[in-house]
Amino acid sequence: MAMKDYKQFLLLLAAAVSVGFVCIVFVLQWVLYFKEGLAWDGGLAEFNWHPVLIVTGFIFMQGIAIVVYRLPWTWKCSKLMMKLIHAGLNILAFVFAAISLVAVFDFHNGANIPNMYSLHSWVGLAAVILYGLQIALGLCVYLVPFTPGHLRAAFMPLHVYSGLFIFSSVIATALMGITEKLIFGLKDPKYKDSPPEATFVNILGLLILVFGALILWIATRPSWKRPTEQLLISQNTNGGGAAAPKGGTALSAYGSTGRDEPDANCDARKRSCKQEESEQKSSV
Ligand code: HEM
Ligand code: HEM
After folding, report:
1. Is the residue at 1 inside a domain?
2. Which segments cross the bilayer (predicted)?
3. Tell me: the pLDDT tens digits for 216-270?
4. For residue 36, is it within any domain?
5. Number of structural domains, the chain?
6. 86 and 68 Cβ atoms separated by less than 8 Å
């Protein structure tokens, strides 16, 4: 099935994946070259797992999980398969985040540093808890087979909003954490004297921000949404090569006219609209 502005999509996706990879290389370079390396010894090398696991798991993997439905070459895969991939990647990202928290709490307890005193730790822990809740609700609503279609449809705008909100909070938390670590960690020369490590890690922060911006852009373009199963099936049975209808229901945004929520403005088309709604509900 054709996708509108396919080249633009590919370009942005390639940019997001590349920037994400560079973030992972930067965080590894930071802890292995500038800092104490990685170990599970209760010391600073154990703390270093915290940024590494956050950037690879909670930022990169979560970003990919969010846009996975939008990859047009997966549109021929079943919805169930895509749900399993989306949920699986999110669960893996959660495991990385949880281990990264164990590392930092363990390090704090070993070094007698108080827990949970900073804004970074408050927002960070809240994001991890909300993320866990989002996974639990996502599994109950979209993977348990007997959840009614209308509930799935009604919950979708909230699911998408909270997913994007948590992802944005994670990016903000990472920027706070990076700044804190540079202020605490750089003694001679200090952070304000701009040693090479400070400049390098500031760039890592910028790259994380750019990664977040690209993922949010891709995930909020209505025309790049995965079409409804009905549309995909009818495209396949009609030869499969036809272009997607411009601004059609299948490619519209979540919202009052989206396919995951009843259309409030469809009086004139009541009959066909009703049929469309029930089809939409069965495909979420
Ligand atoms: C501490 C979460 C990213 C640096 C903490 C703590 C939490 C947390 C809950 C408190 C641990 C305790 O009280 O014992 C998160 C989350 C992140 C994240 C959810 C996801 C974005 C980062 C990054 C860095 C970082 C990328 C960069 C190095 C720190 C530092 C501390 C800390 C220096 C110790 C100081 C403090 O408690 O604020 N983090 N963190 N964090 N984190 Fe993060
Ligand atoms: C869609 C986030 C977990 C099922 C979405 C979207 C976001 C998102 C941002 C919109 C994607 C788009 O418009 O292309 C998250 C986050 C999760 C999570 C952050 C974990 C914390 C889950 C789980 C399930 C699930 C566990 C269970 C299967 C779905 C479904 C869609 C969706 C069915 C609709 C896809 C479509 O447009 O056809 N999720 N999600 N999500 N999510 Fe999740």
Report:
1. no
2. 9-32, 52-72, 84-105, 125-146, 158-178, 198-219
3. 999 999 999 999 887 777 776 665 443 343 333 333 344 333 343 333 333 333 4
4. yes
5. 1
6. yes
Q: Residue 171 belongs to a domain with what CATH number? A: 1.20.120.1770
* CA atoms of 155 and 104, how far apart (whole Å): 34
Ligand 2 pocket check for 284: Cβ under 6 Å: yes
Encoded tokens for 118: 């900073």
The string of DSSP codes covering 17-68 is HHHHHHHHHHHHHIIIIIS-----SSSHHHHTHHHHHIIIIIIIIHHHHHHG
* Residue in this structure with the two tokens 């590494």, named with its chain if needed: 52
Is there a domain that residue 13 lies in? yes
ipTM surpasses cut 0.90: yes
Specify the 3-state DSSP secondary structure of 99.
Answer: helix
Domain of residue 132: give its range. Answer: 6-227
Ligand 2 centroid vs 24 CA: distance in angstroms?
24
Confirm whether 244 is domain-assigned.
no
* Nearest ligand 1 atom, CA 127: 19
3 state DSSP class of 194 = coil
Q: Is 159 in the pocket of ligand 2 (CB under 6 A)?
A: yes
